[in-house]
Design brief:
The complex is a heterodimer of chains A (267) and B (221). Chain A contains 11 helices and no strands. By secondary structure, chain A is mostly helical. Chain A is globular, with a radius of gyration of 21 Å. Chain B is 77% helix and 0% strand. Chain B contains 9 helices and no strands. Classes of the chains: A mainly alpha (267), B mainly alpha (221). The interface between A and B is medium-sized, with 23 and 24 residues.
Amino acid sequence: MPAGTWIHREAEPLKKLLRGEVVAISEMLQKGDWRGVIRPCVVAILLGSGCYGAALGLWRAPMMALYVGIKMPLLVGLTLLVNGLLNGMLAQVLGSGLSFRQTLTACLMSFAIFSLVAGSLSPVVMAAVLDAPERGTEISAAWYRGFLLSQTAVIAGAGVLANYRLLKLLRHVSGSDAVGTRTLLAWLTGNLFVGAQLSYTLRPFFGNPDLEVQFLRPNPFEGNFYEAVWGMMDLKAWWTVRPELAFFGGVVLMLILVVGVGRKLSS
Amino acid sequence: MGFWSTAEAVLKNPRRLLVLEESRAEDRRTIQRLLILCVLCLAVFGLLLGGFSGGQQLWVAPTKVALGALFSLLICLPSLFIFGSLAGMNVRVEQVVKLGLSGLTLTSLLLVGFAPVVWVFSQSSDSLVFMGGLAVVFWMVSVLFGMRLVRQEAELLKLRELSYLNLWIFIFILVTLQVSTAVRPIIGTADTFFPKEKRFFMQHWGEEMDTPAPTPAVRKK
């Protein structure tokens, strides 16, 4: 079979996903076959996330590029597998009408969109990394901060896009905007919660310049993401240094809780 | 479509570039013509910029301008395909290449239009900062017209949401500005082909503006 035909056939479902053709995608979801949907999505995740991971890791070292190029698709796959059962149950409990297999396929599609968007930017990221200032210079620290910030924006932007497409699909499949939104929020909460911990276990991704290049840190299962964040926040010091901001943050959180609970009770 | 009619289509009638050619072979021929036109025009603009310092910059500047712009487009093409698809375009890889390349070709054609103005200023000014600023302004004006063409062509390819394409245009412009810094100097002179120190373009512009303008004697030396 000519290579062009093979690529065209693999790319066609992905193009439909990217264009957000809800009717065609829901048909793909109903069929859920390996060749027509799952394989192209898996290929997109492997290539897209892999290339983007390699671009991120390249900043630290070429070997790190290889490691992160492997770990990024691994992170996506593990998040899908670990949350597969829970997401399937939530989809049924919340009345979306999706089976376990369809839930997994829908999440796979969403991760494929994320991978394609992030992967498409990997040549630009790679060029930026190769053009980075020498480490140890005054400007390199500022560049690194800017790089981290821009890559956080890329990951967040790609994630938002992927979930927006998933939301449209869920609303169409469930036949209700409210059910679609609730299902997406439930999946997102689970995926973010587990994804954050898995990314902590599979660290390093960006690669701390003061630490050696490794596939995994020597203690991957020691501690967890949330303990680390809690430790970094150092709430006591925060309260001492910026009591007015801490107070303001507390008030905002309380307001969100009150409004949320109020709306829930009134509905 | 011939070589000159391709240039005419870029300037006057983008519809001819996209709609008339349906076959992949014809797409590839158009891409070749666009590529030649683009490289020639960018080289002419580069030659004028290099003429400010003279010497080896007469070949270094055209090379850097032409290859730098094409490299910028090359690394942005995957994202043009993906962002275009997100915006609803149903396109082949060849069409995306043609889309990006036609935008860059219009940019380069307009830069050639600015060439006499650049030449007049290069003969009358000794300030690298002024010439650099002028080149950036001309580049920005031309690239905005080029990206306007990309938008028009994308609409012909059933673009639904403009925001994705605008985001890509923003990324492309940032990349071209950074690449111009990565391959510096284009207007001034240096001992090496590529710079020894890597810088972000904003930092480079800021530092260059603080540098005192060289006297004509220094420049000629």
